[in-house]
Structure formats: C-alpha cells, structure tokens
Amino acid sequence: EMAIADALDEIRTRNARNERAGGKEVVDVVKEEIDTERRRVEREDEEMARRAFMTETGEKVRRIGEGEGEEGGAEAMSARQGDASLMTPPPVPAFKRVVKKKKDLGAALGIKKKPALV
Q1: SS (H, E, C) 74-90
Q2: Contact 35, 16 (CB under 8 A)
C-alpha cells in the first residue's frame, strides 16, 4: 500500500508541475524525471549486485584466482596479458576421415556362429 501511495503522490506532483509549467518546460521536466528514475534504478541494481557478492559476514566474495599471496590489481593484469601474448596459437585441426573398426555385435548379444563346414 505504501508503494502505491508513493506512486500516486509522484503522479500528482508531476501533474501539478505540468500544469504550472508550459510548453518546453514540461519536456525538460519530464526528461529530468526520467533521468532521475534511471539513476535510482541503476543505484538499486548496483546495491543488489554488491549484496549478491557479499558473504553472510559482510566480506567480499573473491574470485577463484585471487589469493592472499598474489600480485595486486594492474600488475597481475599486465602479467596475464604478457603471458597470453607469448602463447602459441593452437594447431589447425585436420579434418581427415578416420575409419572406425566395426564391433562384433553378435558376440555382444550372445549369438554363436557355427563353424564353417569346409
């Protein structure tokens, strides 16, 4: 009910401002309200993301690669990029047809072959 009352109050204040303002001012006011709403939504999203990556005790969740003894921030990133530039590209795959040996399915089913008479 409180959310509905707040939304209704916002609509009333916006309508009152629109009546007082004229022409171009209305457009500017509406754009300002849209920007304000967008910033509020972004702040809420950031807060939700921050909470999602916190443990119950309030400390930040770390990535698997992060550790106590590793290098920090930009140094680690530049070292990883340097390692990546030294790596050779993977070999080009060969699309050669490989003939697979056929399985004797008769033996798998328990079928016995009769010995040849000749």
Answers
A1: HHHHHHHHHHHHHCCCC
A2: no
Summarised one tens digit per residue, pLDDT across range 44-75 is 998 888 888 877 777 777 767 655 544 455 55
- Cβ neighbors of 33 (< 8 A, separation 6 or more) are 14
pLDDT surpasses 60 at 36:
yes
- Rounded Cα distance between 87 and 13, Å, is 62
Contact assessment for residue 55 and residue 61, using Cβ atoms and an 8 Å cutoff: yes
CA distance 87 to 31: 51
H helix and E strand count, the chain: 4, 0
Q: What are φ and ψ of residue 54, in 5° steps?
A: -115, 145
